[in-house]
């Protein structure tokens, strides 16, 4: 049994895939590790890049089309045999210190079901990767803040919404060094205790793209596992904010549908 299983989804990820995989291989070379890459129907150079690595470096699973985040990740999760499972986004660049720090923490804290480290962009800016569970109010405020950001006239109103919205984040705690419990950590980086996942169940496949990460954390917490954030360690996350590039797009509508499903499921209106 390997210590660590890593599950990564790729989808037209040619810009990120080599940096991610090179950093992952270097950071885990001292560990017993298995790596699953589930490709969601890439049509660019993603697959040739993955296939250029030595045989048996990864287990590559090809989906004929984009099946969504939950279904694709569940393929890797269901085949993982490690004591711990690391869900990673393909646009991350990891390091040995973060891998070791996360593993040491979750080993030493048996009540922790999921832990994550700090995510930054390439310039070192900290991302809001740990948050309170989404609520209808927070999501409406997020949309209003984005829309009003395009208008100078609405600037005072946008500032009021922004201040109200800050309560969904843990920004003060994120600047400290000590680990702390959170409502959820985003799916770009989640180190999961396999035993806890077995009790909790896989990702909800009714969520194509969206709050599958917080849904999993809620179910973990219902099984008496904590969700923890470790600000002393960090990895790079070249976050693309796909749904924020256009207010109305097919992906943003899929995301919105998933949110309404999540709100109904957990009664968080």
Question: Describe it for me?
Answer:
This protein has helices at about 15-25, 45-50, 70-80, 95-110, 135-150, 155-165, 170-175, 195-200, 210-220, 250-265, and strands at about 5-10, 35-40, 60-65, 85-90, 90-95, 110-120, 130, 180, 185, 190-195, 225-235. α2 links the parallel β2 (about 35-40) and β3. Strands 1, 2, 3, 4, 5, 6, 8, 10 and 11 form a nine-stranded mixed β-sheet that branches. A two-stranded antiparallel sheet has the order 7-9. About 40% of the residues lie in helices and about 20% in strands. α5 (about 135-150) runs antiparallel to α6 (about 155-165). The protein is built from ten helices and eleven strands. It has about 270 residues and is α/β, with parallel strands linked by helices.
List the helices and strands and how they pair.
Elements: E1 4-10, H1 17-27, E2 33-40, H2 46-51, E3 59-63, H3 69-79, E4 84-88, E5 92-93, H4 96-108, E6 112-120, E7 130-131, H5 136-148, H6 155-165, H7 171-174, E8 180-181, E9 184-185, E10 189-193, H8 194-200, H9 212-222, E11 226-237, H10 250-266
Helix pairs in contact: 5-6
Which overall shape is indicated by the principal axes computed on the Cα atoms? globular
Q: Strand count, sense and closure of the main sheet?
A: 9 strands, mixed
Sheet/helix structural class: alpha/beta
Rg (C-alpha, Å): 18 Å
Q: Helix segment count?
A: 10
Low-confidence stretches: 242-247
Ends apart, CA distance between termini = 42 Å
């Amino acid at each position: 049994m390997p210590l660590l299983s890593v599950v990564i989804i790729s989808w037209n990820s040619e810009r990120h895939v080599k940096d991610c995989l090179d950093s992952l291989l270097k950071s885990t070379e001292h560990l017993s590790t298995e790596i699953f890459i589930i490709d969601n129907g890439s049509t660019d150079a993603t697959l040739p890049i993955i296939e250029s690595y030595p045989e048996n470096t990864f287990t590559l699973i090809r989906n004929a089309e984009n099946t969504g985040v939950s279904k694709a990740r569940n393929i890797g999760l269901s085949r993982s045999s490690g004591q711990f499972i690391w869900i990673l986004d393909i646009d991350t660049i990891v390091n040995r210190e973060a891998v070791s720090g996360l593993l040491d923490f979750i080993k030493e804290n048996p009540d922790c079901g999921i832990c994550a480290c700090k995510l930054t962009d390439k310039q070192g800016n900290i991302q809001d990767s740990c948050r309170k569970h989404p609520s209808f109010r927070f999501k409406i405020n997020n949309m209003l803040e984005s829309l009003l950001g395009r208008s100078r006239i609405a600037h005072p109103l946008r500032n009021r919404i922004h201040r109200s919205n800050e309560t969904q984040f843990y920004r003060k705690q994120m600047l400290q060094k000590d680990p702390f419990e959170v409502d959820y950590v985003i799916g770009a980086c989640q180190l999961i205790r396999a035993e806890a996942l077995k009790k909790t169940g896989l990702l909800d496949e009714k969520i194509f793209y969206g709050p599958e990460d917080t849904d999993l954390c809620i179910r973990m917490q219902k099984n008496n596992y904590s969700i923890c954030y470790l600000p002393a360690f960090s990895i790079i996350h070249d976050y693309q904010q796909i749904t924020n590039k256009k207010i109305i797009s097919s992906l943003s509508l899929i995301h919105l549908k998933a949110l309404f499903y999540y709100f109904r499921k957990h009664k968080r209106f």
